[in-house]
Amino acid sequence: MSYVTKVLQPDETVIYKTGLHWRVYVPAILLLVLTVALGIVSQRVATEYSGVVLIVAAISAVVTLVAWLRGFIERFFTELAVSDRRIIYKRGILRRHTIEMNMSKVESVDVDQSILGRILGYGAVTIHGTGGGTETLANIADPLAFRTHVTAT
Fold first, then answer.
1. Structure pTM?
2. What ranges in the chain are assigned the alpha helix state H?
């Protein structure tokens, strides 16, 4: 059972759910390219250096695996939902960070997207609450749809 489902109040319904964009895997993808390149180089270089390059490729493979696992955990254990009463954000497994803001307390919602973010569909959402509360949520998938659902209710 997801965190959002657990914390819903009686008669509260989820209007929109999203999560982190697949962009969180970019470091793992770049490391994978480096690892493959090192593996190819270890087969092409002279025999005296191929062992060293192969060891570096193996270390790079382990670092790639850790980066992929980190991205997977970050993406899988982050929830973001808009209900008819509030915005709910949760990230983390063992050390949890949650944000819940009543819709009546939302003053404005800002979306920041780079050119690449606009092309790939990710960005940062900043929620301004009454009384000066500000929360920024980075790497959100389809931030414009999220903003639309927040401002429409």
1. 0.81
2. 3-7, 26-44, 47-76, 115-120, 143-152
